[in-house]
Amino acid sequence: MTRKEIEEIVTEIANPVVNKHSFELVDVEFIKEGSSWYLRIYIDKPGGITIDDCQVVSEEISDILDKEDPIPHSYFLEVSSPGLDRPLKKESDFERFKGELVEVKVFKPIEGKKIFEGELVGYKDNKIIIKKNGNELMEFERDKVALVRRVIKF
After folding, report:
1. Which of 56, 83, 101, 119 shows a CA-CA span of 20 to 30 A to 13?
2. What pTM value is reported for the model?
3. What is the pLDDT of residue 85?
4. Phi, psi at residue 144, to the nearest 5°?
C-alpha cells in the first residue's frame, strides 16, 4: 500500500471523528523520518485547537485504527494543530485566509525569484493570486507552486 493510499484511508476514518467535534481536518500525512513512520493528523477550529482537543481526537482515531488496522507496519500517531504558519492546501484555506499575508514558493524561478510575499487576494481557476507592494497583482498556477503558507509577523 502506498503512502497516498494510507493517507486517503486515514482521511476517511478521521473525517467523521473530527466533524463530530466540530473541528476541521486540515491534513493527514504519513511520512518516514529516520527509521520510524509517523501518521500526523492536523486539526483546527476557530479560535485554535487545544491539547485536550488533540487528545480526544487522538484517542478516538487510535481506537478505530487499532480495530481496522489499515497500516501494515508500526507507526507513531500524532494529532496536532497545523500551527499559525500553516500551509494552505485546500480551496477553503485560500478563502479563509483571504486578505492575510502569505508566502508563495514556486518550483522554478520567476524572474530569478522562487519566493514571493504578499496579501492573499484569492484562488480562482486553479490560480493563487496575491497582491505585492500594495497593488501589484501576481498569479501563480497551482501546479507550479511548491508551498503557500501564512506569514506571521510579531
Report:
1. 83
2. 0.80
3. 84
4. -100, 0
